[in-house]
From TrEMBL:
Compositional bias (Low complexity): 16-39, 579-598
WD repeat ranges per the UniProt record: 106-147, 245-286
Subunit structure: Interacts with STX1A and STX4.
Identification of the protein by name: Syntaxin-binding protein 5-like
Record family assignment: Belongs to the WD repeat L(2)GL family.
Major localisation: membrane
GO molecular function: GTPase activator activity; myosin II binding; syntaxin binding
PROSITE patterns for this protein: V_SNARE (PS50892), WD_REPEATS_1 (PS00678), WD_REPEATS_2 (PS50082)
Annotated gene: Stxbp5l
Length: 1194
């Protein structure tokens, strides 16, 4: 009796996931995935690799956020710590300091931030949000936390003011009242300034919300309150009455003091500025309309747009600065938003690219009663942050060290590379620095607070972003920072579109015809490949030298006619049908190559964009080597590209869409393969064609001409040569050579008709055969309809021709994907849409075993489709370098097919030891470098596999992940070793095989927000965290994994969020982040002098504690505001304490409480001592009073 190995059965059970799916070794893998038996060969293969990764290696946490804060609303600056805070409409706060000091924190409520106030040089920040809540943030830790919150229940917050070195916060409300909050305890004081007491009793109208609060620089006991309707009240806090009132006809937007406290300036809704003197409050001391037209004397100036904010800053050695936003004349409606700087008699208007949200003047001193000496203005725009240098007469801007221009054009795709070659960053920076903008201020960026060091993470990282305008940006992402290295503009390859030709040539997209859709980069060889929404692929090579040359272009006609397909019932579906006999014949036909494209005439064989035909100067950096464009077919635009891969070692690029696959030799600039997806399923001889049912031809519009009116035999069909206009040699190719298997290819619009073409089975076999195709469609014999591979295969709907930038999934639009899964893999489906197409969704070049039982590895191309099929294509390359430039490349189908559930997303290979195999590459060499030894130079290839892998009987593991499951196959036997059903109810958006702690693992991001990590090759679940629900297709389009436990995605249109799934990095994250607070001594106040102190202001000291404290002011109404302890406070720590660390936390809390009680006891003891001393003093006075008196004198 055969022994049964229970240990291996348990191994299979432990590899299953109860939550997200299960691992199995059944024959569900389709063709090539044999069942595993404990005593079989597959079981022996599974035991070879000892996996080192465990679940303890993984944990998810956010690391840092880069980019401009999305939808900013508020701005604050600490003049001592020199850090800047920006609040947003989504409740986020970004705190910026020196480069490397960049912190993001978020309000849990998500309410918009109305205002921010720093506790200057105390490491704290107060935020007021739109849900009428005040929050106190602790900035003395690397990740700020909320200490206290105060929720207003009956009034809405409109303005806040915190005086320097004060612990009492003034809060203005929409009802016109002013409340006072203790910052330390975050408790509301009983002292309230009611609006009806602030204004005159004779006033019959409500003054409106409070728009300004500030204490007098001259006297801290006086508070200036500005109301929206133009009323200003100078309130005496001690006497609780209005000392003076100011009225103006126009609404007030902002107020600012002169540092001496005798004058203040107001900005109004009519574009005017009023200067008021406290000695004569009846009318303005001065009224100006800076941008109004001058009128005759006695007439009021012409009204202008509102001045939203004004700042009045004085200088010791020059005229004061008056800086304001808005106020332009209404007759200049086309002018951009502006910031006006008035310095003496000079008026400078700085026009901005975006609307101004807020601005602040940066001054040397934090004291409001000293000369301010402004040196810069921080201007927060809707989509940018700029700082203006006020110390220079031309007011230049500072060069921004933060990556605030990620969204300069909308981001359409991203790529992330960790642990890349270290010299790349220096090389890219040296090229990109030459193209930086000039004219910046020569001074350093003034926001330089905080502290930051490199930390333990030292490997180089590069992020690449593709944009809607065709630009590509390379970023240095090392050590938690982000700095732009190099910018590439792909649109320079094409001719500029004329206004009248926009709809003629670019109907595939309505806007952004140059938008980057996919990018593929090989850091080692520095080969860069880009695909765009207009169905083009550009191959770039890196060079340090400038050249002027013509851009070589190829035009490919990719067409696939899909016949009616019927899906059989499950019981009648064979596991793997005979492809050569059962597949419907569907091939790409050659159409007319000289079809005229004009109004009323069907477009055919023309690209969406025009490549520059003249010599183009290419600066150092990435230079276009080849442009490949898909052309229109029978009046229909080409479909967008869904997959892209390039191999520098093979000199081949491959890309596919929902129509088919294209393989191009970019060394010889020829097309090797161009055919529909169904044609790829043929047997090893693709020239063998089956009869096809006749199909109705599309009605050709008048104006189309045929190249050949003579009938063409069915067995002789023409195809265009990829070497049209280039190659001059003629040689007969082998039957398996598919370089000419394409519908139509044009280069430079040169079409030549050469005689002497060889035909085998109705197809050209000569590598240099040229097209002489007719414009007619040929009919074939009718055949019965046949099925596809398996039961219930879903349709792949034809992609829409109009590009949608919100399309995030690599295969099709959101609607098509949703439809695909609504009808997913059900065996009850009996038919498929007639227009369904199978898209190429994944491509991968690797040295592998192309066929079953191969003894040696060879160049292969893995092709994955939207129906879960994987095809292996063998590439026969010339043996020597010299022949590689002259001899053709053979593209041979291996006949190997693998299948999975859902569209294929990614491939990878591992050797027999479990080490991840990298695709071979060519070592970079400057293509434009010339020297004496140029003739002897040879291509240097790195194959990335050991010699033992080529030995007979050796094998490798192939990892394939689709939208539903992952499988591991052993090659060349094509045995399915492991299967893991990742998800049943959702689908995977992004999957990548990455290296973690020198071991490989599979990382997946699911549409339901889960991030999952699986070990390799066993596919054991290591991590499954519900991280981020898919709320925006932008996340799916930009989410990407990389090595060393790193990942990123575009969290908003302007921000990149980086995260880690490494436990080690989560433990060390505190060491990598910058410190927001550094101990700095507060600058001393200037000595005002005896006379100025005597006559320049109030000599009385103002004790806010005595005035606003509970003993004097009483308690505020409990229904007015509610105190909420934050997670960073002691009360919050009590709620968070738990688990293993709970006891330690509780002990620490108890110690803090004990210290607090001891402090209270000490205060009570001190109070009792004071009381006892007072009693003793009174008793002594009483004794002295009656000491000498007789008894009868009482």
């Amino acid at each position: 009796m055969k022994k049964f190995n229970f240990r291996k059965v348990l191994d299979g059970l432990t590899a299953s996931s109860p939550g997200s799916g299960s691992s199995s070794s059944s024959n569900s893998g389709g063709v090539g995935s044999g069942s595993l038996h404990p005593g079989g060969t597959a079981g022996a293969l599974r035991e070879e690799i000892q996996e080192s990764l465990t679940s303890d290696y993984f944990q998810i946490c956010k690391t840092v956020r880069h980019g401009f804060p999305y939808q900013p609303t508020a701005l604050a600056f600490d003049p001592v710590q020199k850090i800047l805070a920006i609040g947003t409409r989504t409740g986020a706060i970004r705190i910026l300091g020196r480069p490397g000091v960049d912190c993001h924190c978020q309000h849990e409520s998500g309410a918009a931030v109305l205002q921010l106030q720093f506790l200057i040089n105390e490491g704290a920040l107060v935020s007021a949000s739109s849900d009428d809540t005040l929050h106190l943030w602790n900035l003395r830790q690397k990740r700020p936390a909320i200490l206290h919150s105060l929720k207003f229940n009956r009034e809405r917050i409109t303005y806040c003011h915190l005086p320097f070195q004060s612990k009492w916060l003034y809060v203005g409300t929409e009802r016109g009242n002013t409340h006072i909050v203790n910052i330390e305890s975050f408790i509301l004081s009983g002292y309230v300034i009611m609006w009806n007491k602030a204004i005159e009793l004779s006033t019959k109208t409500h003054p409106g919300p409070v728009v300004h609060l500030s204490d007098s620089p001259r006297d801290e006991g006086k508070l200036l309150i500005g109301y929206e309707n133009g009323t200003v009240v100078f309130w005496d806090l001690k006497s609780k009455r209005a000392e003076l009132r100011v009225y103006y006809d126009e609404a007030i937007h902002s107020i600012d003091w002169h540092h001496e406290g005798k004058q203040f300036m107001c900005s109004h809704s009519d574009g005017s500025l009023t200067l008021w003197n406290l000695k004569s409050p009846s009318r303005p001391f001065q009224t100006t309309v800076p941008h109004g037209k001058s009128q005759r004397e006695g007439r009021k100036s012409e009204p202008c747009k509102p001045i939203l904010k004004v700042e009045y800053k004085t200088c010791r050695n020059s005229e004061p600065f008056i800086i304001f936003s808005g106020g332009l004349s209404y007759d200049k409606a086309c002018r951009r938003p502006s910031l006006t700087i008035m310095h003496g008699k000079a008026i400078t208007v700085l026009e901005m690219d975006h609307p101004i949200v807020e601005f602040l003047t940066l001054c040397d001193t934090p004291y409001p009663n000293e000369f301010q000496e402004p040196y810069a203005v921080a201007v927060l725009l809707e989509k940018d942050l700029i700082l203006v240098d006020l110390t220079q007469t031309n007011f230049p801007i500072f060069e921004n060290p933060y990556p605030m221009d990620i969204h300069e054009s909308p981001v359409t795709c991203t790529a992330y590379f960790a642990d890349c070659p270290p010299d790349l960053i220096l090389v890219l920076y040296s090229i990109g620095v030459k193209h930086k903008k000039q004219g910046y201020s020569n001074k350093e960026w003034p926001v330089n607070g905080g502290a930051w060091n490199l930390g333990a993470q030292t490997y180089p990282e590069i992020i690449i972003t593709g944009h809607a305008d065709g630009s590509i940006k390379f970023w240095d992402a090392s050590a938690m920072t982000l700095q732009m290295l190099y910018k590439l503009k792909t649109s320079k390859v094409f001719e500029k579109q004329k206004v009248g030709d926009g709809k003629q040539t670019c109907e595939i997209v309505e806007e952004d015809p140059f938008a980057v859709q996919m990018i593929y980069w090989c850091p080692e060889s520095r080969i860069f490949c880009v695909s765009g929404v207009s169905a083009y692929v550009i191959i770039y090579k890196f060079s340090r030298h400038e050249i002027t040359t013509e851009i070589v272009s190829l035009e490919v006609r990719l067409q696939c006619d899909v016949e009616d397909i019927i899906t059989p019932e499950p019981e009648t579906s064979p596991p793997f049908p005979d492809l050569s006999s059962q597949l419907p014949s569907s091939r790409s036909l050659s159409g007319s190559t000289n079809t005229v494209s004009s109004e009323g005439v069907m477009k055919d064989s023309i690209p969406c964009l025009s490549v520059k035909a003249r010599p183009v100067r290419m600066p150092p950096g990435y230079q276009a080597d080849l442009v490949i464009q898909l052309v229109w077919v029978d009046g229909e635009p080409p479909q967008q590209i869904t997959s892209l891969a390039i191999s520098s070692a093979y000199g081949i690029v491959a890309f596919g869409n929902c129509t088919g696959l294209v393989v191009v030799d970019f060394i010889q600039k020829t097309v090797l393969l161009s055919m529909g997806t169904i044609d790829l399923y043929r047997s090893s001889d693709l020239y063998q064609r089956q009869p096809r049912s006749p199909r109705k031809n599309k009605q050709f519009i008048a104006g189309l001409t045929e190249l050949n009116d003579s009938p063409v035999p069915l067995e002789l069909e023409r195809c265009k040569s990829p070497t049209s206009g280039l190659a001059t040699r003629t040689s007969e190719a082998a039957p398996g050579f598919y370089r000419n298997e394409m519908p139509a290819v044009r280069q430079r619009n040169q079409v030549h008709h050469l005689p002497g073409e060889d035909h085998v089975n109705g197809h050209c076999t000569s590598p240099t055969s040229q097209s002489c195709s007719s414009g007619k469609r040929l009919s074939s014999a009718d055949v019965s309809k046949v099925n596809r591979w398996g039961p219930g295969r879903p349709p792949f709907r034809k992609a829409q021709s109009a590009a949608c930038m919100e399309i995030s999934l690599p295969v099709t639009t959101e609607e098509a994907r949703e439809n695909s899964y609504n009808r997913s893999r059900s065996s009850s489906i009996s038919s498929i849409d007639k227009d369904s197409k199978e898209a190429v969704t994944a491509l991968y070049f690797m040295e592998s075993f192309a066929r079953k039982n191969d003894s040696t590895v060879s160049p292969c191309l893995f092709v994955g489709t939207s129906l879960g099929m994987v095809l292996l294509i063998s590439l026969n390359l010339p043996p020597s370098d010299e022949q590689r430039f002259t001899e053709p490349v053979m593209v041979l189908p291996s006949g190997a097919f693998l299948s999975l559930k859902g569209a294929v997303l990614t491939f990878s290979c591992m050797d027999r030891t479990g080490s991840l195999m990298q695709p071979p590459y060519e070592v970079w060499r400057d293509p434009n470098y010339t020297d004496e030894n140029e003739k002897t130079w040879k291509r240097k290839l790195v194959m990335n596999y050991s010699t033992s892998s080529q030995e007979t009987g050796d094998h490798q593991y192939t990892i394939i992940c689709s939208e539903k499951q992952a499988k591991v196959f052993s090659l060349p036997s094509q045995t399915c070793l492991y299967v893991h059903n990742i998800t049943e109810t959702s689908f995977i958006l992004q999957a990548e095989v990455v290296v973690m702690c020198s071991s490989a693992c599979l990382a997946c991001f699911c549409a339901n927000g889960h991030i999952m990590i699986m070990s390799l090759p066993s596919l054991r679940p290591m991590l499954d965290v519900n991280y981020l629900p898919l709320t925006d297709m932008r996340i799916a389009r930009t989410f990407c994994f990389t090595n060393e436990g790193q990942a990123l995605y575009l969290v908003s249109p302007t921000e990149i969020q980086r995260l880690t799934y490494s436990q080690e990095m989560c433990d060390n994250i505190q060491d990598m982040l910058g410190d927001l607070f550094t101990p700095i001594e507060t600058p001393e106040a200037q000595n005002r002098g005896f006379l100025k102190g005597l006559f320049g202001g109030s000599g009385q000291t103002f004790d806010r504690e005595e005035l606003f404290g509970e003993a004097t002011a009483g308690k505020a109404s409990r229904s007015l505001a509610q105190h909420i302890p934050g997670p960073g406070s002691i009360e919050g720590m009590k709620g968070a304490a738990g688990g293993v660390m709970g006891e330690l936390t509780r002990a620490r809390i108890a110690l803090d409480e004990r210290g607090q009680r001891l402090g209270e006891l000490e205060e009570k003891t001190a109070g009792m001592m004071t009381s006892a001393e007072a009693f003793s003093k009174h008793a002594h006075e009483l004794m002295l009073k009656y000491k000498d008196k007789k008894w009868y004198q009482f």
